[in-house]
Design goal:
Blueprint (H helix, E strand, L loop, with lengths): L12 E5 L13 E6 L4 H16 L4 E2 L7 E2 L4 E7 L2 E6 L3 E6 L2 H7 L5 E5 L2 E4 L3 E4 L3 E4 L8 E3 L5 H14 L1
């Protein structure tokens, strides 16, 4: 818990343990609940739903001044660039086209789980199923396109950031 509470990749912690005498020791600013073993679904699911709502209700980022330009980073699956335009692919509302280059999007999303993987692509690390030296595979349930290219100059950075994300999440 002490390592997780300082991670920028972890937003909430749920403890599942048979050691109920430690319930008060388990709380931190990121702890949202404690489930004693054996786990009861009716206790765990509200905590998971609360965590998901909290995650998706982070402050929205703005890609333009219009209201439709505000998107929650947790809702973004990936972003791809076509010159001076970016396409932001989201869970909830599909594709959004904005007049902006990918460097501008990278600056807006710099303190989120969305990382640059290619000169034309960014991806939300929570959607990654696997990474190899040439591409990233997204979870099957996320979207029909499952492979995104990893640029040669981004390989080391992608590997380091994703490893850090996995170790701390």
């Amino acid at each position: 818990m002490h390592r997780l509470q300082h991670s920028r990749f972890v937003e909430s912690i749920i403890f599942i343990s048979s050691h109920t005498n430690y319930v008060y020791d388990s709380f931190s600013p990121k702890t949202i609940g404690f489930c004693p073993k054996p786990v009861k679904i009716e206790r765990l699911f509200p905590l998971l739903e609360s965590s998901l709502r909290s995650h998706c209700s982070n402050h929205p980022v703005s890609f333009n001044s219009a209201p439709e330009g505000k998107i929650y980073p947790g809702d973004i699956i990936y972003i791809y660039s076509t010159g001076h335009y970016i396409n932001v692919v989201t869970y909830s509302s599909g594709n959004h086209l904005f007049v902006m280059d990918i460097k501008g999007a990278e600056n807006i999303l710099q303190n989120t789980n969305i990382i640059r993987i290619h000169k034309s692509y960014m991806v939300n690390m929570s959607c990654i199923k696997s990474v190899n030296s040439t591409n990233i595979t997204l979870f099957d349930s996320v979207i029909e396109i499952r492979h995104l290219p990893v640029g040669r100059s981004y390989r080391d950075q992608v590997k380091a950031l994703y490893t850090e994300y996995l170790l701390k999440y």
